[in-house]
Amino acid sequence: MATTADSTIDAVRTSLNYSLPNPTGSELYFNQPRPELTTSINNNLNHDSRDVMIHNLRGREQFFTLDENGFQYVKQETTANFTDKAAIVADYYQEIREFLKQQTGGHQVFIVGHRVRGSESLEEYKPLPADRTVGRPPALVVHCDRTLDSVIEAVRRHMGEQAETLLKGRVRFVNVWRPIDQVVSRDPLGVADWQTCDTSDLIQTRIDYTNLSFNAYVSQFNPKNTWYYLKDQTPSEALLIQCSDSKAGSASFCLHSAFHNPESPSDAPERKSIEVNTIIFG
């Protein structure tokens, strides 16, 4: 178990974009009304930039788990072809299903979708559907991808006659995030230890894409938040992020955000990454 940052671990000082509630009291929203990559995104988010320390946990990965901290780094080799949409859906999705069953003990894994980030891959991934939010730059805002209510809605929408039976057991929304092709130095992904977070800081936000709508969270700043990342994360090091969990006592969300790494060389290549969104049953 890990609950606090170890001062002996190296860290970087940077800023993260937290959010403030809408002063009018109305719901926050984030819209992308059309699938074209050039479409401007409409939102009413009010960012609150804060300086933070983000601790490198390399060498201590085994002390952080999904249930206790909301995230977990796991070695997982892959031979997936990330330049081919059909290969991702046919091959990588199945790889992720089996990987998550092994890692979590879940008996069934449903793949909601995936997104690829990194401007170098815009043309490669442009044919993918709009609800995959592909070819976009790293998300530089503190957020959590799904509320539990939205996960339950998704189960009822996708799982047909199985839905109510599945909802009687444990249900969680877990992302699997990894770099593509190269070690990440520029714009790595930071994750906050759930044990240092407070649900009262969460702000529900409505996300609307062309053919997909759901509720997610952004968060107000809390000085107790302890942030981590894996320095020089490689494509064979998968990051599991537990966004929602119906099991009482388990990490029920995980705040995360890309961040500007002040230690990244000026000529470091732009980050390319893939994130698969899943619902795990059991």
How do you describe this structure in short?
The protein is of the alpha+beta class and 282 residues long.
Label this structure with key terms.
5 helices, five-stranded mixed sheet, 16% helix, alpha+beta, 282 residues
Word description of this protein:
With 282 residues, the protein is of the alpha+beta class. It has one domain. It contains five helices and 15 strands. It has a five-stranded mixed sheet with strand order 1-4-12-9-14, with no helix packed on it. A five-stranded mixed sheet has the order 3-2-10-11-7, covered by helices on one side. The protein has a five-stranded antiparallel sheet with strand order 5-13-8-15-6, with helices on both faces. The longest helix has 20 residues. The chain is globular, with a radius of gyration of 18 Å. The relative contact order is 0.26. GO terms for molecular function: oxidoreductase activity. It comes from Rhizoctonia solani.
Percent of residues in helices comes to 10-25%
- Helices and strands, in order, run as EEEEHEHEHEHHEEEEEEEE
**What is the number of beta strands?**
15
Mean pLDDT, to the nearest integer, reads: 88
Instruction: Quote the distance from N terminus to C terminus.
Output: 22 Å
How many strands, which pairing sense, and closed or not: the largest β-sheet? 5 strands, mixed
Shape: globular
Low-confidence stretches: 119-135
Structural class: alpha+beta
Tally of domains: 1
User: How many distinct helices?
Assistant: 5
Task: Give the radius of gyration.
Answer: 18 Å
Largest beta sheet: strand ordering: 1-4-12-9-14
Instruction: Estimate the strand proportion.
Output: 25-35%
